[in-house]
Amino acid sequence: MTDAAYQRLRAQVLNDARGWDDPANVAEAEAEPADPADIKGKFTHEELPAALGYALPVGIGHAGDYNGCTVSYREYTSRDSYRKALTTYGPHTADYMVTRLVRMAGELKGGPAFTLEPYDVVRAEADEARQVAVAESVGRASAAAYDAWVAGLPDDVGAVASLVGPSDVERFAAATFTWRGGSNAVDNPVVRVERQVGDGWEPFADMTGEVQTRVDFPQGVQGVADSYTGAQEWRWTASFEAFDAFPARIGSTPAGRYRFVVDGASRVGGAERAYSLTSTPFTVSPWSGLALGSVVVADGVASFTASATYPRSYASSFRTIADDGGTRFCRTCSFRPWATSAPVLSVTVTVTAADGSVTRVPATPSAGRWSVPLAAGSSALVRSGDALDAFGNSNGVQLVLAR
Q1: DSSP readout, 168-181?
Q2: pLDDT tops 80 at residue 342
């Protein structure tokens, strides 16, 4: 690029565009001066004085309406494009909007009143009135059609009721609750899980995280017919994952008693009726899958390995949950990110001496193994629940070290 071409490019981008809308420039609107200093750039350099300025202006797109694309003058005139086609008000749309927004912002701080331009009254206000009239007429027509459709809906079959209560679970599994609710034309249940604290119940999880819902949709032509004749039973299911999180700061599911609470709506007697259901309580327990093994007894010492490698997924009636087989990261194993493992913090060994006395001895970790001293004639084992990881999970199966 030659220096002359570069200086022209800079002028086209950076020069003040002030005066582009002066009627005196109509004859030269499609031309460009030879002197770069006379070129009108992309935008008018119009700023507010300090008294009317703002410490931090933040532009928010699509805050109230959408005007299509708004490209600069140079982009508009340089080529035909998708963005140009959607720039509604011609080549100077962007600069026009920016300068008017600056003036309106000044008025909000006590500056000169923003005055309407002739074109606003002739076209803009008339178009706004047209849009309002169209929106209101379409709204009234659609509201009447919707109300008529709702009035024709059949009552939901069967009373709202709990169908399948949740079962007790360990971490890295999900508790589910199934109930008969309303059709998805009227029902969009909100489900939360509460935790028992003392003698009361406190909210613990909701549908922003660990709780999900699904409905058994009607199947085939018969299902559609059943839906519109009131013969379809609407079964809803909620799921609650219990897990140890990764990163750990996201939180984990404490051991304890929980319950589902559902608020929804069904159609009874030709009208929508709210309902509320509470499931039977269920228990969340620490995971019992810590693995112990590789026992070696030699020179008066019993040693073994202990590891906490968590399951990747669990069996779920939700089709979105399944192990996708990914080697680095499973995208469908769970609804929330959980840990893949944790360090084993303690292992207690129960030792029975030759004379029948029993002691409980903490094992010592070293080089990836755990060990305890073992006298001749003694037996030893790690009982179920005596190995604990950083999240309080344990071993569900005992490990015999010596008989």
Answers
A1: PEESSEEEEEEEE-
A2: yes
Decide if 278 contacts 260 (C-beta within 8 A): yes
Collect all residues with Cβ–Cβ distance below 8 Å to 400 and sequence separation of at least 6.
295, 379, 380, 381
68 torsion bin: left (phi>0), alpha (psi -120 to 50), beta (else): left
Q: Which of 149, 158, 218 has its CA nearest to residue 184? A: 218
Q: Is 5 exposed, middle or buried (0-12, 13-18, 19+ CB in 10 A)?
A: exposed
Contacts of 196 (CB under 8 A, 6+ apart): 256, 257, 258, 259, 281
Q: What is the DSSP string of 305-363?
A: EEEEE--S----SSTT-S----SS--SSS-SS-B-SEE-EEEEEEEEE-TTS-EEEEE-
Task: Give the C-alpha separation, 396 to 403, whole Å.
Answer: 20
Are residues 388 and 345 in contact, defined by beta-carbon separation less than 8 angstroms?
yes
Per-residue pLDDT tens digits for 328-340: 888 899 988 899 9
Whole-number Å distance between alpha carbons of 384 and 4: 84
And the tokens for 66? 């959408």
Q: Which residues contact 128 (CB under 8 A, 6 or more apart)?
A: none
The answer to whether residues 297 and 401 touch, using CB atoms and an 8 Å cutoff, is yes
pLDDT tens, residue by residue, 139-156: 999 999 999 999 999 999
Q: Is 83 helix (H, G, I), strand (E, B) or coil?
A: helix
Contacts of 20 (CB under 8 A, 6+ apart): 29, 40, 44, 73, 92, 95
d(CA 306, CA 387): 8
- Please name the helix (run of DSSP H) or strand (run of DSSP E) that holds residue 292, with its range, or none: strand 291-298
